[in-house]
Amino acid sequence: MKLTIAVPSKGRISDPAVNILEKAGLGLKNATNRKLFASTYNKNIDVMFARAADIPEFVEEGVCDMGISGLDLIREADAEVEILSDLEFGHTKLVLASPEDSKINSKEDLKDGMTIATEFPNLTRKYLKENGLNIKIVKLTGSTEIAPFIGIADAITDLTSTGTTLNMNHLKVVDVILESSIKLISNKDSLKTKTNLVEAVNTSIEGVIEADRKKLVMMNVAKDKLCDVQKVMPAMSGPTVSEVLSSEATVAVQAVVDEEEVFELVNRLKNAGARDILIVPIERII
Asked: By the 8 A CB rule, do 68 and 25 touch?
């Protein structure tokens, strides 16, 4: 039984999506030549490259079993899919924005008869309905930022991550409609009929995400200094201590710690009596 995962063929989330699959043990064969389908090093799992915007619908309809796409695209397509994991990259916001000199400073300033330009008509329509507004929507497929300045719209809804593009185009954020990041999704039927494969993929990818900001810290510690070292040693479930065969007076200690703790931790460990300290990257935590 084969399982197919849809991955964006290009754009800002394509390479990170392929990278997370590779770290999860699903490296692509002939990865430099991205055709429609690619085999992975698992004989039961293939990858299909597609437009990110099409992936939610492809997964919903069963064209593929699983997919990687943004929450904004999933919600825009109103796709009936199972969201399995947040892949914790591609963070962005769908915002309502207006020109800096506009009188539209909040959603309360929107009036019936105004026009909003957007690449996300469904999410925008839902937002307007929730706020009881009867406003015309103009769908654009690019250059949304220019719409208010050429008389097409009074405001826009658009994606932003840092706000730089909006600022460069003299636009201000009026309201946040949706906060988005990249998700791993599954077809609902595949989740039932290919449960083992779907769960195996999800578990491996979650292991990569869990390990992404972790490091394995390893060291040798004199037994009489062990208590001092343990006091300063954070860990997921306590450090692992094992005997060093070549020395009755020394033990080996290791623990998984958050990456941001490593810099200060090394000095604390050294002062507590640890030596031969190694900092090792982690590929996955299951």
From this structure: no
